Amino acid sequence: MNTQCEALWREVAVLTEAGALRRLSGAFGRFVGAMQVGSGGAPSPASAPLLLACVLLSELEGRGHSCLMLDELAADPCALMGWTAQQWAPLAAAAAPLPRQTKGWIAALGGAGQVWQAGQFDYDQPLVLDGERLYLRRYWRDETLVAAAIGARARIRRPVDSATVNGSLARLFDGDGASAGAVDDGPDWQRLACAIAVRGDVAIITGGPGTGKTYTVARLLALLLAGAEAGAAPLRIALAAPTGKAAARLKQSIDKAMAALVARIDSGSGAFDLKQQAELIGPARTLHSLLGARPDTRLFAHHRANPLEVDVLIVDEASMVHLEMMAALLDALPAGATLVLLGDKDQLSSVEAGAVLGDLCEHAEQGGYDEATRAYAEAAAGQVLPPRYLGAAGALAQQTVMLRHSHRFGGPIGRLALAVNQGDVAVAEQVLREGGEQLAWIEQARQEQVLQLAVDGYRAFLEILDGAPLAVLRAFEQFRLLCAVREGEWGVAGLNGAIEARLEAARLIRKSGEWYVGRPVMVTRNDYGTRVYNGDIGVTLSDPLRPASLRVYFLEGDEVRSVLATRLRHVETAFAMTVHKSQGSEFSHTVMVLPKAGGAMLARELIYTGITRARQRFTLVTPSGAVLGEAIARKTERASGLRAMLARG
Question: Is residue 392 within 8 Å of residue 199, measured between CB atoms?
Answer without folding.
Answer: no
